[in-house]
Structures are given as structure tokens and as C-alpha cells.
């Protein structure tokens, strides 16, 4: 397997050497010479620019994070070594100038900043906040789950006090609300722009907002254009309430092939390249023209198995797959050591994590025994779905295919365009698949297991266990810390036994950019770049 890995990389390097010779064109010239234009190479296109219904697609979430703001946000702090981070456990006002909690912890009142405007110049007042949350709850999008988890179950818990003041009422005091709110699902929208598009056929103006944010943004950037499949462009929002973004224009070039993204970064055709193969990171770190930012991440990578569809509806089959996976090979060759093995569905770095229940070391004989017991003595065939442009997914799939063949399981690797992959995963339509985009924005174990394993929510593997659901319900909002600790341990024991996923790894978050790009701040809550801080020397 080590030899095969080296052969695979030689092919990638050959592709790279050819790609470097490609003409970089006018956009490249801007990347090299224009301090007011930043060119970013991304692996896939935007999927849907409606912040209420967007989930999973990392390009879209990063876009939303840079064109919208919400009431509160993470505090940016400078560490002793000069590194700037968005502190995932510390919150400050954003659109809200200030906030105040009631003595019982069940009401938080927000005072809006003076003179707030949307990107088109319309005033942004507390009425827009109420309009937005009414739409969020009526539309029943992903954000409703976040708010309900923090004991804000419906729009009637959002109170408009006056044009400058809005209050959120909680049924029970808890510490989840701010961590759940500091993200793009709570983007405040412009009722004057969105309202006219709300019709009987489209009561929430989703058809408008899914393709166009213009006029309703209030973040440091606004959408300038979107050419699907090619690029999307952001420009500085002159009506932004905070410090103006340093760089005027950001061009996001959609380049699915990772070798091409790498080549364009090395040649200077782009300023930043996302999702680069880890095999290339050492050479980039040695390149004086490139800066590589590496940070510990709570992101998780796993292989999902649709627990409602045969043969993956059989626990023994899922266990067998978990015993067959080449964990060390994936970390050593695919990730080149830039990761740690994931041994619990709750990542290392999140309170309550334990790896004491992990048993799935690679063992082909054990895997074969489980398949026989499950009724598949001759194995089975399946499609394994991955997103195009994700090198980690592609290489993992190749090694997985080789290992599963040894227990009689034949998989056909199917690469899906990014938008199609994320649409299918959101609809829970994938059967056997790789994913490495998830990170729990709220660093709380019950937040994590609710989103990933509660049957009513968003677990893409369609896992359902009534005991797990009840443990989550009983302990998410609780002052009994001993009971919480015991319950989160029991949840991990059940999940490791039932194996709804194959647990793979926690990668480092790695971002490579030209060395003249400065000002980067790492946000551990979501890993998204805030482009407003960047500048070019």
C-alpha cells in the first residue's frame, strides 16, 4: 500500500508540472499585481445563497460568512505569539451594539447599533431582526434546530421592543444560544428586498435568495456577480458598520482539480488555494513565496452508511466495514500525518470526548466473520460516493476499495459535482459516502450529538436510536453535570457499538496563500476565512 501511495502521488506531480505551464490569464495578472484584488481558488461552486436553508456546502457557508452579519459574533483576540483567532468561547456584539441578560438567564436583550445599513443603503433596524427570525421559524430551515436546541422554539420567543431593541426569550436558561447564533443561519435580511419576492407560490422568497443576496447583505462584502461553474465575485460593502475590508474585490475561481489549484498558487495565478493535498504542504512550507497556516481543528472526517438502506441497515455489516478500513494508511498516506485518528464520534477537543469504546483496528478475519453472521458470506457490491475535487476523498476511496475487496465487498467509486453531492447529502440520499466538511460550531458535546445523531435532525446517515435521542433530550439543558457526563459517555458507547459511521480522522486546518497576503485570523468554530482582515503587501 505504501508503494501504491507513492505511485498515486507521482501521477499528481506529473499533472502539477503540466499545470504550472498553463497561461495564467488576466485574473492571474490581478493576483500578482493588484493589491485591491484577491483571487481565491475553490474546489466547488456555491449551492444556495439563502442563509436559512444552506447546510454543509463549505464554499457557500464561507460566502455567507463574508457577506452577512448577525447580532453577536466571536471575539477576535491576539495570542502571545501574535496569532489572531476568533475565540469560539467568547462573544461580542456585531449588529448589536450591546446585549444584556436577565437575572434568571431566560431573556437576552439586544440594543442595535446606530446608523446600520444594508448594502443597498436601506436602514437596518430591529424590525429587520424580527422579520428575519419570523422567516427563519416559518420556513423551518436548519437554523430552527439550532434555536430550538437553545430553548427558543418559535418566533413568538423573539420580541420586537422598538426600532432599536429586540429581545430573545428562552424557555430554560442555557449556555448554547450565543454559540448557536454566531453563524450565517442567523444572517439578518432586508425586508424591503426580500418582502416583494414573498408570494403565494414562494412564501419565503427562497427562489430569489437562493441565487442572489444583493441588497440584503450587511457584512464586510457584498455579491458583485456569480457565473455558475466558473467564478463568483465579492466587492467591499461601503455600508458595512465595522472597519472597512482591506481588499476591495475578491474573485473566487472554481477549480475542481486540486493539482490545478496547487499549480495556480505556486505560479502566482491565485493568492489563496483551498483544500490542497497534504502531500504538497511540506514543499509549500519550504517555499518563501507561500505562507501556510496550520491550526488544530475539531473538524471530523468519516464514512457514512445509510442506516435505513440494505445492507447498511444491518449493524453487523457496519461493524464489518469498520474493521476493514485501513486507518493508519489513510492518516499516513492520504493525510501525510496532518491528522489524528478519530476514535469517538465526539472529536478530541470537545468536552466529554472519550476513546475508551473504540475497538475497530483493521482486522479482515473479524470483518469476514461479521459479514457471515450478517447473512453476506459472499460480500456485496455498492457505490461509494465522493465529491469531485476533494483529493482526500479520492485517495481515501482508492484505499478503501482495495481493503474492502479483501472481505468480498466491491465498491464502485462515483464522483459527484460539489453542488450535486451537497444536495444529495442534505436530502439524506447518499447510501455509502465520504465526508470531511463537518465541524460543530458550538463546542458542546450535546450540540454535536444532536446535530449528528438525533433522528429528527440532520444526521446524514439516517441513524435512529430512541435511547440516544432520550439521553440527548434529558441532558442537553441540565445543571446536573454528573448526569451529563455519564450520559455523554453512554451515548459514545452506544454509537461505537452500532457503528453508524466509520470514524476516520480529525485533520489539521491548513490554509496556503501567497506570502504577501497578510492579516489572517483563524476561527476554530467554523474554519472559515474572514476576508475583511486580509491585505496584500
Structural overview:
The chain is of the alpha+beta class. Helices cover 33% and strands 23% of the residues. The chain has 18 helices and 22 strands. The strands form 6 sheets. The chain has a 7-stranded mixed sheet with strand order 8-9-10-1-11-19-12, sandwiched between helices. A 4-stranded antiparallel sheet has the order 4-5-7-6, with helices on one face. Helix 1 packs across helix 9 and helix 11 runs antiparallel to helix 13. It starts with a helix and ends with a strand. The N terminus is likely disordered.
Task: Please outline what is shown here.
By secondary structure, the chain is α+β, with helices and mostly antiparallel strands. The chain has helices at about 1-20, 25-35, 60-65, 125-140, 140-150, 175-180, 190-195, 205-210, 260-265, 280-285, 315-325, 325-335, 365-375, 390-405, 420-425, 445-455, 465-475, 480-500; strands spanning about 35-40, 70-80, 85-95, 95-100, 105-110, 160, 165-170, 220-225, 230-235, 250-255, 270-275, 290-295, 300-305, 340, 380-385, 410-415, 430-440, 500-505, 510-515, 515-520, 520-525, 535.
SSE layout and pairing:
Elements: H1 2-20, H2 25-33, E1 37-42, H3 58-67, E2 72-78, E3 84-93, E4 96-101, E5 107-112, H4 126-139, H5 142-149, E6 158-162, E7 165-169, H6 177-181, H7 191-194, H8 206-209, E8 221-227, E9 231-236, E10 249-254, H9 258-267, E11 272-273, H10 281-285, E12 290-295, E13 300-305, H11 315-324, H12 327-334, E14 339-341, H13 364-374, E15 380-387, H14 391-405, E16 409-416, H15 418-426, E17 432-438, H16 445-453, H17 466-475, H18 481-498, E18 501-507, E19 509-514, E20 517-518, E21 521-523, E22 535-536
Parallel strand pairs: 1-10, 1-11, 3-21, 15-16
Antiparallel strand pairs: 2-3, 4-5, 5-7, 6-7, 8-9, 9-10, 11-19, 12-19, 13-17, 13-18, 14-18, 20-22
Helix pairs in contact: 1-9, 11-13, 16-17, 17-18
Amino acid at each position: 500500500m505504501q508503494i501504491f501511495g507513492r505511485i498515486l502521488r507521482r501521477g499528481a506531480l506529473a499533472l502539477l508540472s503540466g499545470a504550472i505551464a498553463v497561461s495564467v490569464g488576466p485574473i492571474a495578472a490581478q493576483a500578482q499585481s493588484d493589491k485591491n484584488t484577491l483571487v481565491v481558488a475553490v474546489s466547488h461552486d456555491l449551492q444556495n445563497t439563502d442563509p436559512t436553508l444552506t447546510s454543509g456546502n463549505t464554499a457557500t457557508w464561507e460566502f455567507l460568512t463574508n457577506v452577512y452579519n448577525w447580532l453577536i459574533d466571536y471575539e477576535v483576540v491576539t495570542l502571545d505569539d501574535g496569532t489572531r483567532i476568533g475565540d469560539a468561547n467568547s462573544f461580542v456584539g456585531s449588529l448589536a451594539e450591546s446585549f444584556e441578560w436577565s437575572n434568571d438567564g431566560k431573556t437576552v436583550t439586544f440594543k442595535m447599533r446606530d446608523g446600520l445599513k444594508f448594502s443597498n443603503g436601506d436602514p437596518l433596524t430591529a424590525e429587520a431582526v424580527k422579520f428575519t427570525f419570523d422567516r427563519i421559524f416559518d420556513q423551518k430551515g436548519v437554523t430552527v434546530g439550532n434555536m430550538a436546541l437553545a430553548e427558543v422554539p418559535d418566533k413568538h420567543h423573539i420580541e420586537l421592543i422598538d426600532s432599536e431593541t429586540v429581545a430573545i426569550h428562552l424557555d430554560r436558561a442555557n449556555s448554547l444560544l450565543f454559540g448557536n447564533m454566531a453563524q450565517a443561519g442567523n444572517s439578518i435580511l432586508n425586508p424591503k428586498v426580500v418582502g416583494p419576492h414573498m408570494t403565494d407560490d414562494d412564501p419565503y422568497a427562497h427562489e430569489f435568495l437562493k441565487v442572489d443576496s444583493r441588497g440584503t447583505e450587511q457584512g464586510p462584502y457584498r455579491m458583485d456577480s456569480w457565473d455558475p461553474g466558473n467564478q463568483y465575485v465579492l466587492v467591499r460593502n461601503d455600508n458595512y458598520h465595522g472597519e472597512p475590508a482591506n481588499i476591495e474585490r475578491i474573485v473566487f475561481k472554481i477549480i475542481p482539480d486540486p493539482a490545478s489549484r496547487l499549480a495556480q498558487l505556486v505560479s502566482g495565478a491565485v493568492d489563496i488555494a483551498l483544500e490542497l493535498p497534504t502531500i504538497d504542504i511540506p514543499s509549500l512550507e519550504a517555499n518563501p513565496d507561500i505562507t501556510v497556516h496550520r491550526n488544530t481543528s475539531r473538524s471530523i472526517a468519516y464514512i457514512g452508511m445509510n442506516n435505513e438502506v440494505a445492507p447498511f441497515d444491518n449493524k453487523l455489516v457496519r461493524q464489518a466495514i469498520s474493521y476493514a478500513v485501513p486507518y493508519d494508511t489513510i492518516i499516513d498516506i492520504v493525510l501525510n500525518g496532518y491528522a489524528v485518528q478519530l476514535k469517538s464520534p465526539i472529536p478530541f477537543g470537545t468536552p466529554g470526548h472519550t476513546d475508551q469504546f473504540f475497538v475497530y483496528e483493521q482486522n479482515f478475519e473479524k470483518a469476514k466473520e461479521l459479514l457471515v453472521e450478517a447473512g453476506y458470506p459472499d460480500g456485496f457490491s455498492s457505490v461509494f460516493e465522493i465529491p469531485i475535487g476533494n483529493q482526500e476523498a479520492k485517495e481515501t476511496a482508492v484505499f478503501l476499495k482495495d481493503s474492502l475487496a479483501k472481505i468480498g465487498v466491491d465498491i464502485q467509486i462515483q464522483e459527484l459535482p460539489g453542488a450535486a453531492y451537497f444536495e444529495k447529502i442534505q436530502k439524506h440520499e447518499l447510501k455509502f459516502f465520504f465526508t470531511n466538511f463537518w465541524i460543530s460550531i458550538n463546542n458542546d458535546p450535546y450540540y454535536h450529538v444532536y446535530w449528528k445523531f438525533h433522528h429528527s435532525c440532520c444526521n446524514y446517515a439516517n441513524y435512529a436510536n430512541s435511547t440516544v435521542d432520550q439521553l440527548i433530550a434529558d441532558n442537553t439543558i441540565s445543571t446536573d453535570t454528573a448526569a451529563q457526563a455519564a450520559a455523554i459517555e453512554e451515548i459514545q458507547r452506544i454509537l461505537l457499538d452500532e457503528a453508524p459511521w466509520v470514524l476516520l480522522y480529525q485533520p489539521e486546518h491548513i490554509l496556503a496563500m501567497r506570502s504577501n497576503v497578510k492579516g489572517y485570523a483563524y476561527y476554530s468554530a467554523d474554519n472559515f476565512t474572514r476576508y475583511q482582515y486580509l491585505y496584500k503587501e
